[in-house]
Structures are given as structure tokens and as C-alpha cells.
Write a sequence for this structure.
């Protein structure tokens, strides 16, 4: 059988746009001689619509779209993903379903069995699990249709305090009883740099275990925080990856199961390049899917805003990025110069506003109330917040969306000013530890010095008081990042982290900072997710707690 | 049997404090002659610990606390709630369990079957559902132990697009086979003013259906957004409520099943008074459980900040509340006067800072960039953000936590400035529609005029430009609130809302404002929840979507 994989970028709730794209690819697959074309999980609605799924109107539109798409399946079959109403009088209102379309109609439906409800996944909130299994017979072959997590019944976890087998049922155990010719897995599996290989291994193991080829179809594109990386594959029954589609780009391919042909694999790419590509896609889709064009941010001369602005230019074009340089009396000359050089390297519009006069005015007005107090964090925050006002004024006046430049290390320990430098529509580096920000800068500069060398090599500083350095209040980033990674991504206890060779007091001090700053992260912009545990809706900590 | 109900206020993760409180009440119940004392769901950890449940260390501490509490059950039995590790090699790592303690040890354990995973509930994220049923035999009686949702297998929903029967299993159907003498339901059921009666009806119907008395034990106290109202009850087998514990306060009571005695019911209280009490408790627990004492906010002379400051004074005491009055050139004289009178009525510290000089300075500095543009929202936002800086400066300098005063109507349509008046540690009125804010003001003033009459009767205005009124950009609040309630709480479609008698264009305009402002609410402070659908983690809408 000739099976086409359509790896596409969908917009949540854009039934018209998504359907049109699907129908175009049905027609293309037909032209290419395919018998069947397969799209990814919830392709009709976009993944994941969250509580839009609770709106009757939304589901009605999804149903209409499925029927319209079905009408286009003449002389070709298609598998698409959409929600389906649970007709039983019990259970959740919906199933997360794969629709098998042929002869202009819905031929059969397979519902998702294993509903991931952990980290960023929340599917049991809306969906009832499937309990009935069957294969689809089409052109003399038996197709086992599974939906994403359905193949993930054995799940290696980063956190040792969790089970490998999260579910009571194994859909493949059930489906293998029908002796399928091949498995189709329609998926919506987000990128995370430290789960590389893991996803492929799950598929390889299933192909081997059940001695059955697998078509795995992922989506690409960003949906606010989540970045889907594509990389759809066809794996033969021996567990060999024979075909691999692009990463971070739409792609499609027809595979003839009777005549597999040459291997087609993607070039191996370093982690930092993947993160770079993921973030560029994350910015681009945030803007384009919202109908925004232009971005702004404050350039400090430091490395975080430097990397952010380069990613923004790559995502949106230099003509759509406009920055402010906002020195104070504590800004070093080279900071302004580094920021200026960078803006000119990128050929973007920039203006300089010195914040000192408004900061002085705030301090004068507050002086009668602050008599007898000493200068400190309050005054530092006033500077950061004055900058926040200026850059938001540009945003409001000209319609540029503010990009937040906070990195994951700062964000973790609360080294940032709420309503100041924590402002922004999307946090570009909020899931990127500082050491990785350095690697991104080096990667960006690999051919030409875009980011001034000085921004990369100078000791990081917020420049909110004379001669301030980040290391005045934080450990060296090399150590800080390792402590944080073990706590946040690996869920290790203070004792286990100390055992890695860190000072016990330092570990406790860092973890206390993480715990105490939940309230800041609660009010932060959505964070582009590139790791297995990002700040945001995949990590829910109680704010009011004694722990 | 003599059963004591212990309706207490727990702090999440405070194993020491919670255990101590539980042990005290075990001893008290023993002194009072009880055979059994019952505490609420997850009483040992506090409800709900969210992803703290993913930490091995956290679960270990819970286990230790359960054992310690068990040792205190000599000559009395107790039922407490805590997580328990799932020993099977499959499924989620934990159960949400009720521990029956007697003779100094854990006598038996009943796990929760129905795991609410909708709205603010997220239990399937962490817990495996129970599949085994049994009763506990104690002193010759058979006790059916259920945990909260276990009795909610038939669930009337506000949203017609959802099923009454959300689950495949009915724990009471299973447990009734053992012919129990009575049912215990340990619960953590949050307050919502528009689900009054609903909770009692579920219990009454179960008692009647199974012809069995029910002890229902709720917790009280606020956990960030969620406010638990208590109101534990004993219902006889005829479905009559015989005993009812206090609302919004700790309480305890011994009930002799062989000698029920007089009815003890709470006085009926109007909705507005309940909301008032809920918000005061919400503020108080936010501060006390975090170890904070003092609050600040900006008093504008308007009704939202007026109601907020009164609630804060009632929660924290006048000596712990300090406000800023921050007029601009657009502030009317009476606004400042109204704010001043209110502050003096409340006997709280207040200072006046005119924001005009910093606002002028910002505008001067931006003038070269803004040449040729007309004055508008940008300039209004600068005012709101300048106020934000001043009030945060007070917060940072003196350790007062900023209270946010945004009401639910504003919050819904995005009528507020991000990083300006949307600042704050907790949003006191974020789940209170404007019309209810008026009722709260009237309730506060019922005996003495605390809030100046003028703040209540004048047309609401943000006072960010000359003669501005809220109705310049919004419908009358009476209409706005009804449209919003039907959309947010009732999940009605635009068509259904129009059919209630509203202008179609007006409905579409309002709903578009709601949908377009998800991004503002995403970055907002946690909202004290008093309704069945509050903004916050109980309502998850995708930010990037075309719908």
C-alpha cells in the first residue's frame, strides 16, 4: 500500500484554515498516487484546544470540518484527528479520535485509549478513554490505528519516583490480536531537547515487539508554549527507521510498503542548533498565528537580550524588530556600545532613552516616605520597572509585541523584577538555562560575529547598582544550572543534589530561592518550552504552602 | 457509635502543623467520649499539593506523619486523608487515600475511586483510581468510607454540554452490597456561591437512595485561590440534615448515632454575606499561611479599591494595611476626598503621591519617538503603570503585599493595564462581577457608612482621561455582567446569549473582548475563587488560537 505522511502546522480553532490545508494534502497525495494519507492527532482542531473542547459550538464546527474533509476522500483514504462526542450516557463528553475517511464518508473511528495527564498533558480533563479495539480493513490490508500515547504504555521517565507503566491497558496488546499489517500512530508530540532519542526508541521497540511496521505522524509548529518538531518516521518490522521527515518544518512523503526504496534520514544536528530552531519557530508561530507582525524589546548589552533579538530577527525579519536601549547611571559605556553594535549588525531600528531622569523623579517623590531607609532592592526595581514602562509604551503605541528575555536560571531563582524585566508577551529564553544561552550565542556567531564578543565574555550583570555582578547573589552559572537541572528536570531531593558534590548550604539556598519565587513565575509570560520540564502549565506548584 | 467531626484549616506541606492539629483533635475527641474522629480529605498534606506529590521526599514525610498520628489513636479510632504509594507495577504512583487508624496503627486503607479532573480539579494527574471496595468493621458497626467525589458519580452540571454521570463506576453501588451502618465522606469541597444547595442535595439524595446515614467532613480555609467553606454535616438515613457545622470557621462536634439529639443547623445567610466572609478568609489565609502580615494597595476613590481595602482591614487589621492615594491631573477632587475619608474611616495609614510629575517626565522623554501620533491608550497605560511602580515601591521597601483590586467584569473584558493596575500578589475581587461589588459595598455599609456613599453611587471611571466613564467603552455593568455570566459560568454560545434579549453586535463585541484578553489574565495574580468558574487554573484557554 502507498501511504502518504502529511506533517503539517495547524492553528488551534482555525477550522477553515486547518481543513483547507488537510484537503490540499489529500489532493496532493492522490496526485502522488497514494492509497492513504495520514495526518496528525487532533489535526482538525489543532493540538491542544484545552477548554475550548467544553464548548458545544466548537465541537459542532469540528464535526462539520470532518464531514467536509471526508467528502474530499474519493479514490483515496485519509486518517485525521478530531474530537468525537461520546454517545454513552456515562463518562466524559468526548473521545480523542482518529477518523478513517474513504468513499467520501467516515468509514470508521478509533478512539484514543491512553490519555496522558501529566506534565503539559491534560487529556483526561476532556476525554473518555477507549475500551474497544479493532483494525481497519482497507484494500486487503489490516491497519491498526493508534493515537500518540497509545504506544507509550511503557514509558521511561526522567523522574525515578514514577512508574514505567502508567496504564492498566496496552492498546498494542489488544490490536496485535487482529494481526495487523501495519500500525499507524497519529501524534502530537512536543519537542524537548533532553528527550531526544527517547521517542524513537519507544517506536523502535514497539515495531520489534509486535513485528509490525509503524507509520508515526507528528505535527510541527508552536502552540503558545509548546513547540512540535515533526520528525515523522516510517519504521519497518525489524525496528529500522527507513524514512524520516524534516524537523521544525512541514514535510510530506509517500511510502510504498511493498517497495520501501532507499533510506531517507535527516542529518544529525547538535542540541544547541535544535534549540535555536525550536525557539525561532516558537517566536514565528506565536506572532503569525496571533496575527502579529512586529516585536520589541530592551537591549541591555547583555547576552540574554542579545540572543533574544537575534532569534526574533530570524523569526520575523529585521524590518519587524525595533528595540530600545535604556541606560541609567549604572550602565557601563561598553553595554550601550555593545547593544548599539548588535542593533546595527542586525540592521534593526533602535532608539536610546536614558531612564535616569524618571528614576530620579520617582525617588524624589518617594523620598519623604523613605526617610531613614537604606537604598536597595526597591530602588533597583524602580529602574527595571521604568524600563518596563518605556518598552511597553513602544508596544502600546506602535503595536510591537514585547519579547521577554528572562532565562531559565534567573526565572528559577527569581532574579528578575516582576512588572519590570519580567514583562513580555512570550518568554523566549524562559526554558533555556544560562549556560545554554552562552552556547546559543556561540552558535549564532559561528560564521560571523553578530553578537559582540564582549556581550558573551563579560561577567553577567543586571547593572542596577555600581559594579553589580550576578555572582554577588547567585552561584556561578555552571553550578547554579546543574543544581537547578537536578531539582527541576530530575526532581531530585536536596540530599541527592548535595551528594553530587555541592555545598549543602548552597543547595538549600538555591532551592529556597526556587520555592520562594513561585509567585513571580505565576505572573510571568508563557515560556517557549524546549525541555522536559519547563516553567508554566506543565509544572504546577501550590503558591501558598509551607514546604 | 459516637463520631466526632473535626472541620479544620490545614496548610499545604506543613506536616508538622497539620499533624499537631490533628493529634490535638484526636485527644479532644477522646476527652469528649468519641469512638471515632474524622478529618477531611488529604488532611495530612493539605488539599491540593499539586506537583509536590511528585516529590518522593514529600510522600515520605506524609507517610511519617500518618504513622505518628496513628500512634496517638489509642482508645479511639480516626480517619485521616493522605497520599499512599501504589505498590502495583502499573498505574499512577499514588492513591488518594483514607487511613483508618486504631490501636496505635494503620488498621485499614480505602483509596479514592472517582478522581475529579475538571475545572479546578486535577486528581488524575497524580492518583490512580481505586478498584477494590470494602467496609471497615469497628465496634460492631460497618463503616463505608468514601472520599469526596466518590459520592458525586451523579453530578448535575452548570454546562449542559457535559454528562451527569462522569464515571463508569459508582462506589456507593459497590459499598452498599456490604450493607454499611453508615457512610463517612471525607472531603475537600471548595466554596462557590452559585453551587449553594447543590452539594447538600447530592448528599441528601445518596442518604435516601441507600437508606444510610452520612457523615460529610469538609475542610475550611483558603489555599491560594481556593476557599473551602466547611459546612460539614450529618444526614440521617431519611436524607434529613440533622447536624451542620460552621461555615468559614473551624468547628467540631460529636454525634452519637444512637442518640442523635436536637437538630443543630447554621443560620441562613445571604449570598453577599457569604462572598464577603469567603474573601476575608481568602485574604487572611493567603497572608498568614505565607507568613505575611501587611498589605498595601492604591485607593482611587472608586468602589473596587474601597471594597478591597475594607476586606483587607477585616482580614488583617487596620494596623497592617497601608495605602497610597495617587491622583493625576485627571483625578476629580471628590475621588481623592472619597479615598481620604475611607482611609480615615478605617483608621489606616495613607499617603498621597501625585503621579503627574513622573507621567509628564515619561511623556517628555518619549515625545521625540511619538511625534505625529495621537494621545490614547499608551498615555493612559503610562499613568496606570506609574501608579504600579509607586505602590510596588511601598511593597518592596516595607514588605507590604500588594492587593489587586480588579473585578471579574474588568478582568473578563481586559479593562485594565497589565503591569499597572493589574499588579498584585492576590486578586481579591477577580472572581466578583461589578454588580456584586456594589452589593458588597452596600453590605459593608449596612450599619455604618464605612465606604463614602459617593464612591458607590458615582458612575465608574478609570480617570485616565478627561471625563472618562467605563460606559464609554463597555456596556452598562448590569448587561455586561449578565452576558459574561452566561458566557463564562454557563458556557453559552453567542447565539444563545443573544436569544436572552441582548443586541447581537454587542454580544459579539463583549465576547471578542473576553477572548482577546486571555493573554492579560495569563499574567494576572491568583484570583480568590467564589464562583463555579473563576479565571485561573480552573479555566484553561489556549492563548494562541483562532476562534
Amino acid at each position: 500500500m502507498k501511504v502518504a505522511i502529511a506533517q503539517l502546522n495547524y492553528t488551534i480553532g482555525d477550522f477553515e484554515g486547518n481543513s483547507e490545508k488537510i484537503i490540499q494534502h489529500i489532493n496532493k497525495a492522490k496526485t502522488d498516487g497514494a492509497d492513504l494519507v495520514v495526518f496528525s492527532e487532533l489535526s482538525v482542531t489543532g493540538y491542544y484546544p484545552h477548554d475550548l473542547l467544553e464548548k458545544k459550538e466548537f465541537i459542532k464546527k469540528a464535526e462539520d470540518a470532518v464531514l467536509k474533509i471526508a467528502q474530499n476522500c474519493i479514490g483515496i483514504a485519509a486518517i485525521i484527528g478530531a474530537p468525537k462526542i461520546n454517545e454513552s450516557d456515562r463518562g466524559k463528553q468526548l473521545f480523542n479520535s482518529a477518523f478513517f475517511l474513504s468513499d467520501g464518508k467516515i468509514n470508521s473511528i478509533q478512539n484514543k485509549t491512553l490519555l496522558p495527564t501529566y506534565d503539559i498533558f491534560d487529556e483526561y480533563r476532556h476525554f473518555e478513554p477507549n475500551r474497544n479495539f479493532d483494525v481497519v480493513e482497507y484494500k486487503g490490508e489490516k491497519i491498526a490505528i493508534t493515537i500518540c500515547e497509545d504506544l507509550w504504555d511503557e514509558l521511561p521517565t526522567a523522574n525515578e519516583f514514577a512508574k514505567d507503566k502508567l496504564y492498566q491497558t496496552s492498546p498494542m496488546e489488544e490490536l496485535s490480536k487482529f494481526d495487523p499489517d501495519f500500525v499507524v500512530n497519529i501524534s502530537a508530540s512536543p519537542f524537548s531537547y533532553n528527550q531526544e532519542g527517547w521517542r524513537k526508541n519507544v517506536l523502535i521497540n514497539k515495531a520489534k515487539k509486535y513485528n509490525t511496521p509503524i507509520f508515526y505522524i507528528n505535527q510541527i509548529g508552536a502552540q503558545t508554549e509548546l513547540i512540535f518538531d515533526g520528525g515523522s518516521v516510517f519504521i519497518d518490522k525489524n525496528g529500522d527507521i527507513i524514512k524520516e521527515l524534516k524537523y521544525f518544518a512541514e514535510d510530506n512523503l509517500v511510502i510504498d510498503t511493498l517497495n520501501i526504496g532507499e533510506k531517507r534520514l535527516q542529518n544529525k544536528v547538535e542540541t544547541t542548533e535544535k534549540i535555536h530552531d525550536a525557539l525561532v519557530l516558537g517566536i514565528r508561530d506565536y506572532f503569525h498565528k496571533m496575527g502579529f507582525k512586529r516585536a520589541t524589546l530592551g537591549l541591555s548589552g547583555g547576552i540574554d537580550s542579545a540572543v533574544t533579538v537575534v532569534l526574533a530577527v530570524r523569526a520575523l525579519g529585521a524590518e519587524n524588530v525595533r528595540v530600545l536601549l535604556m541606560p541609567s547611571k549604572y550602565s557601563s559605556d561598553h553595554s550601550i556600545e555593545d547593544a548599539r553594535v548588535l542593533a546595527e549588525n542586525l540592521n534593526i531600528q533602535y532608539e536610546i532613552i536614558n531612564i535616569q531622569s524618571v528614576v530620579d523623579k520617582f525617588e524624589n517623590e518617594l523620598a519623604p516616605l523613605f526617610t531613614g531607609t537604606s537604598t536597595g532592592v526597591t530602588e533597583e526595581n524602580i529602574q527595571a520597572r521604568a524600563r518596563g514602562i518605556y518598552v511597553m509604551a513602544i508596544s502600546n503605541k506602535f503595536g510591537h509585541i514585547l519579547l521577554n528575555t528572562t532565562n531559565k536560571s534567573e526565572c528559577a531563582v527569581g532574579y528578575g523584577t516582576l512588572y519590570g524585566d519580567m514583562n513580555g508577551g512570550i518568554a523566549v529564553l524562559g526554558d533555556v538555562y544560562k549556560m545554554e544561552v552562552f552556547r546559543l550565542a556561540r552558535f549564532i556567531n559561528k560564521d560571523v560575529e553578530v553578537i559582540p564578543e564582549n556581550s558573551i565574555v563579560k561577567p553577567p550583570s543586571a547593572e542596577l547598582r555600581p559594579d553589580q555582578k550576578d555572582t554577588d547573589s547567585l552561584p556561578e552559572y555552571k553550578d547554579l544550572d546543574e543544581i537547578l537541572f537536578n531539582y527541576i528536570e530530575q526532581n531530585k531531593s536536596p540530599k541527592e543534589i548535595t551528594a553530587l558534590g555541592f555545598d549543602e548550604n548552597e543547595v538549600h539556598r538555591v532551592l529556597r530561592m526556587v520555592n520562594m519565587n513561585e509567585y513571580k513565575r505565576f505572573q510571568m509570560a508563557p515560556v517557549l518550552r524546549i525541555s522536559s520540564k519547563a516553567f508554566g502549565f506543565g509544572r504546577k506548584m501550590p503558591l501558598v504552602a509551607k514546604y
Remarks:
- Chain A is about 35% helix and 15% strand.
